[in-house]
Design a protein that fits this description.
Keywords: Metal-binding. This protein is 17% helix and 37% strand. By secondary structure, it is α/β, with parallel strands linked by helices.
């Protein structure tokens, strides 16, 4: 078996319209396709990010994430940016709270964290 890349990351949100606005308007991810699945009372929004995708789902009454960010399982989702200072300023101008920029002690690269509307930890990692 040879795994070659990540195809998509799936996120389940609590407020579909709020999360859709965050990922498309705040982060600027283009919509590939939006589907409402009536039998599940669920939306599925496919968003492009480079050659990969984020699938944003809504379900009635999804369980909450146990804790942030040290819960067992997926820790966070990291996005590569060319200029972390500019990206942080853009997010802050859109009223997104961003942590202080830090330096990765192993790579020397700069990074920071912010959250989506459901508190999912998201990372910016400078190229």
């Amino acid at each position: 078996m040879q795994v070659t890349k990540i195809h998509h990351v799936a996120i389940i949100c609590s407020d579909y319209q709020k999360s859709k606005a965050f990922y498309t308007q705040i982060l600027g991810l283009p919509i590939i396709q939006e589907t409402f699945r009536a039998e599940r009372n669920s939306y599925k929004l496919d968003l492009a990010i480079g050659q990969q995708q984020i699938e944003l789902f809504s379900f009635p009454n999804p369980p909450k994430r146990p804790s942030r960010p040290e819960a067992q399982g997926l820790r966070h989702l990291a996005f590569v940016v060319d200029n972390i200072d500019e990206t942080v300023k853009e997010l802050q101008a859109k009223k997104v709270e961003v942590e202080a920029i830090r330096v990765d002690e192993l790579t020397g690269k700069r990074f920071t964290f912010f959250s989506d509307p459901d508190g999912l930890p998201l990372e910016l990692y400078e190229k």
